[in-house]
Amino acid sequence: MEKILLTFNRLKFLYFLLFITSNALHTPTLHCGNIQLQRPFLAQNSTVPFPLNRMIRCKSQKLYFRTSLGLFPISSIDYTSKTLTVSHTSCSPPSQFVSPSLLSAGFPSPPHPNSLLLFNCSRTSHPAASFIRNCTRLHMCRAASEVPYSCLVIKDIGKLGPDFHPKDLSCTSYKRVYKRTLNEEDFEGVELGTRISFDIPDHVPDICNECKKPNGSCGVGLKCICHAQECKDKVLSVTGSLDTGISSCSFYFPSLFR
């Protein structure tokens, strides 16, 4: 009887090992730099109508968000909330502006809205003025010892649409940000970057339908997924010029690197 129990326990242990190994094989993970890659970003069946592996590109161990404009650096991926963050690390002049709405149009809304901080704006009137608030306490473009920049905040850039531009208010600089939680009212505890949701429900027949409509909600990221030939795999930086089709933006295109 003792031998039978011993054999049974061994079989259970072997079954457990096979179960763990099988799960590991069916949940593959890779890394690009320090960012873990897993489904849905690993290679998918070619029959999938919108393969999300087209959404990202790893070059020289740096991860990028692919768009029809070029490559935007990704700072993190959250597989729990199903969002990735397109990084923004410094105050930028209006000549380098790409709207967060243009990046995210066509994707589901992220858990918390993408926001925009605008600095030293000489104009305050705008057709969408009801969505713009003061945030004069921020020291985000100068040393904390200096007098704070005047600051405006657009809490939900999605309400303004992709055609809004900081030059509309004659601002000297801007930052793309998002709040960690909805409880933060002062915008001093924000994170830098723009969050893009990849939480696409199974019941959506074809998210690419928006890219087939004349005025559909098809941003530069979704366009790259739905029309792979329109992806531009060049890294965007801060000099040169590029027309987004919405407003004029400035970038530098270095040579491709692997």
UniProtKB/TrEMBL annotation:
Signal sequence extent: 1-24
UniProt keyword annotations, A-Z: Signal
Name by which UniProt lists this protein: Uncharacterized protein
Lineage: Eukaryota, Viridiplantae, Streptophyta, Embryophyta, Tracheophyta
